[in-house]
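Request:
Um, any thoughts?
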Amino acid sequence: MSAQRTERLLNLLIALLNSRYGLRRSELREKIYAGGAASDAAFGRMFERDKNDLRDFGFDVETVTDLGWSSDDPGTTRYRIGKESNRLPEVELSPDEWTVLLLASQLWEQAALGTAAGNALRKLQAAGGLADVELPAGVQPRIKPAGQAFEDLVAAMHAQHAVRFRYLAGSTGREEERVVEPWGLGSRFGQWYLVGFDRGRGAKRFFRLSRFTSAVTILEREAFTPPAGFNARAELNSLPELPVSTAVVDVRNGKLLGLRKRATADGQPPLDAHANGAPDAGWDRLTVPYRDAEVLGEELASYGPHAKVVAPAELSAAVQRRLANAAAFLAAPVPDYSFAHAGAGKRTRKRTSEDQLKRMLQLVPFLVRNQGLPIEEVADRFGVTRQELENDLLILICSGLPQGYPDELLDIQWEEGHVFISQSMELNRPVRFTVDEACALLTGLETLNGLPELAEGSALESVTLKLMAAAGEEGLRAAALSGPEVGPSNSANLEIIRDAIESGSQLHLVYLSEQKDTLSERDVDPLRLYSLDNTWYFEAYCHSAAGLRNFRLDRIEDLAPNGKPASSGIKPDGGFPAKLFTPNDDDTLVTLHLTARGTGLADDYYAERTAPLPDGGLVAEIRFGNTSWLPMFVAQHGGTARILEPEVFAQASRDWIDAALALYRS
């Protein structure tokens, strides 16, 4: 969408909103499209595209005809936008309801739905005002990013376009291309699934996102209509959990303490394990239960030459395929790339004029309710620079009724560093939720039902009902997305940590570090709890490391108060939501090459700079504190990530993967 088209759409919107009886096509062409359409046919096509765009922004253009006249007659047909039908109803929320809503919106920090949740919150603030609330220290859940495939599938699902991708079938072990109508997405058994109509097989199918072997291609010319009343959670509830299988894995002596912890002493190895005889000297043979060969295969591939699958063959093939893909990617030519500019924080997509218009439509009602805010604060609220915000304001103050007088234009002043608006031209109330916005908030609220302390209160239920009523039809479509379980698996440790945070007490823990493959004892001052799906973490000041650290609850071997008070004056790192780690200036800056499937890793690890590639991939600069773990990182991601610089780490990854493949060749 060009900047010229953005301005035209804004003026068209204002004209249709401020017309009581509607405007004829001839009037619109003369006043809005003057010089933009060379013929009646070109004007007609342009006007139809603009009406569709306004509908995507939440405004439906009404067609009005004189009594007794046909709507096919352009001379008697008028167009307008109703002032009430497109507006978000006022939603009054209590402080408790705002707290729950903020928690739900923050679930999507690292996904495209995070932007939609932020937009929805701004609309609610403009409609009813944000209460002054304090988020609880012990309840900060988040949804673990499901990669770029998730982002693309959500976009295709809401736009109702078919998708194409390559898929490793669990039943046959073959990789095949699929063309699917994406009906819904949901999390089940710790995995994300796509539910849709497989056009090649002519039937409904479930696809696990972890088995996608290519990027998702959205077929923008292939439209579909999902089944009426489709509910992703109900569909996924019909899926049976995979049965427990047994893996036999040879592990080097003294290595992989985490895997040894999960091994069973009484498990019966598969029959083909006996054909391999006893493990070589320096190795131990473990029996490990698992449900999904691809999930365990990803973990075992990261262990490189420290682990070798003896049985079953399916698991061995999964590990070798990842290692071979990683080796091939490491040997591929280095692409040409350049970092156009430094950008702190997570990767962002290129801003478009469509984004700008959406932002401006949120900006006007926000300014009406929040008169006199400093311009820097307004820019920060909308996630843009001051210059970008001023560009928005410059377009807005030139917009209004076609050929109108000064009092028929938007009137905004910001010369003194504070922003005021005195003429809003019927843009003073936020437009209704888009499907993405309704989906982000309502799915987030549904996900919070897994937390007992929230589910037992009335605020979660009441705010859900209010948002459903406000969202209307878009709220019903939110059922196409179902979030994961976020309840903790170890509630005892969670309660100990929460009590210590509230009482300001110190804790003593025995902790397993999988990256370093060691057990350590530490005294820590707990600061806050948070989660990714149902994997819970707590941030604490570690007295052994003399700094802030994050600990996974499922890797704690022992935990108890040590009777000492926590140190005073130590604050959590950054704001809400908490980050798994915070890169430091003295960490090693690593340049990674990510395929189109792996681009989400740039967000997961807080890339400092990214350079897009023609094939949809990225080159990203990321800081790592523990560089000895990098070969495991490359092997784990099986051909979607490799190290370009420093060369010493790239070579270490090649050596790690070559040594692992040599085990299987021997």
Summary: The CA atoms of residues 188 and 237 lie 8 Å apart. The first helix runs from residue 3 to 17. The mean pLDDT is 85. The first strand starts at residue 23 and ends at 24.
